[in-house]
Amino acid sequence: MSTNATIAIKQPDGSYRAIYLHSDGYPTHAGLMLVRHYSTAERATALIALGDISVIAEELTPKPGAPHYVRREAGEWARQPGVTLAYGRDFGDKGTEAYDYETDAALREGADGMGASYLYVFDNGWKVAQGHGFTYGPYVELTEGVCQLDEVYAEAD
After folding, report:
1. Rounded Cα gap, residues 149 and 28, in angstroms
2. What's this model's pTM, rounded to 2 decimal places?
3. How far is residue 75's CA from residue 23's CA, in Å, rounded to a whole number?
């Protein structure tokens, strides 16, 4: 079974653009990838521009001249190590573009609809909320220390 996640970036107008991540959405993998390799607005925006992804890795773009694809019907795949696997670009799927949400509440509802166990948001740095079923907890600043935890909950005030 996969640990799904939603990855979003907060836009200047307060709205959100988000994508679905199918595999390894927990902080010890996806969280670490975001903190270590997508820690600028430019990198976060480029990740979201890929649309829905199967796997998040260190790099966004495959090296030219080397294969990087998945052909489900033929049972073929050639993935470059360390390169993010995107449903549109690499699988050839349609309808994988980023989703737009006007509010945080709408984003949380969308994340729940995606079956996301974790909701990551870039807003001048990464933060994460853990949850499911319309019950995502508060956001916690995503740091390498937080990425080492199995559970991510904000401390009570």
Report:
1. 7
2. 0.91
3. 19
